[in-house]
Amino acid sequence: MLKLYSYWRSSCSYRVRIGLNLKGLEYEYKAVDLLKGEQFSPEFLKINPIGYVPALVDGDFVVSDSFAILMYLEEKYPQHPLLPSDLKRKAINYQAANLVSSSIQPFQNLTAVKYIEEKVDADEGDVWTKTHMGKGFVALEKLLKDYAGEYATGDEVFLADLFLAPQLYAAINVINLDMTQFPLLLRLHEAYSKLPAFQNAVPEKQPDAPSS
Ligand SMILES: N[C@@H](CCC(=O)N[C@@H](CS)C(=O)NCC(=O)O)C(=O)O
Fold it and tell me: Which residues belong to any copy of the GST C-terminal domain (predicted)?
């Protein structure tokens, strides 16, 4: 069975959990407690040398990084395609996914926020995260307005949605970002909350989530 190294609150793990659910793949959940620093244990560093979740183990094959994992799953398990066949919509899915994973999430990563709080100021972490999230959301709101249907790039769920849902969850439930400027993103957040594959991937439903 597939194994997913994950942390309940990790948005990068959450993307992969949605992908696994959409494709109807069962997997064993291997919790890595990021707050306890388990990502830096010698055992985990053998799985992912940079010490980040998620990581997927498929038999004797190991792959890390949510984008790489999702592309691996996409090719190995073609059911419920994560990419549209239309070339331009596919490119927009890559753009939106990478905007989240390269231009928003790295700024909110535990390592980055801790660094800012320690080297700059304890209150600066939150300002820093909100600034980068806001900048990314302004871009996503503009980018997707010409492509969105019920979901980010049309009426079917695709890769962009897998990256957006966890990012929106983090903005709304964790960071408390003011979302009034982002009506389209808010509408997408609502739409995701109605889909079982997304509902079952939310942080609070994961085996390592605190019970209260
Ligand atoms: N590009 C990577 C980023 C992975 C990443 O940043 N993971 C975070 C959780 S979302 C992490 O493990 N952080 C641990 C740390 O900062 O020590 C991906 O998409 O998987």
Answer: 86-211
SS3 content of the chain, % helix, strand, coil (to 5): 55, 10, 35
Task: Compute the Cα dihedral for 107, 112, 116, 122 and give only its sign.
Answer: positive
pLDDT in tens, 26-46: 999 999 999 999 999 999 999
Architecture of the domain spanning 87-197: Up-down Bundle (1.20)
The model's pTM is 0.97
Mutation to probe ligand 1, out of 12, 47, 208 (largest number of atoms < 8 A from CB): 12
pLDDT in tens, 42-74: 999 999 999 999 999 999 999 999 999 999 999
**Whether the CB of 32 sits within 6 Å of ligand 1:** no
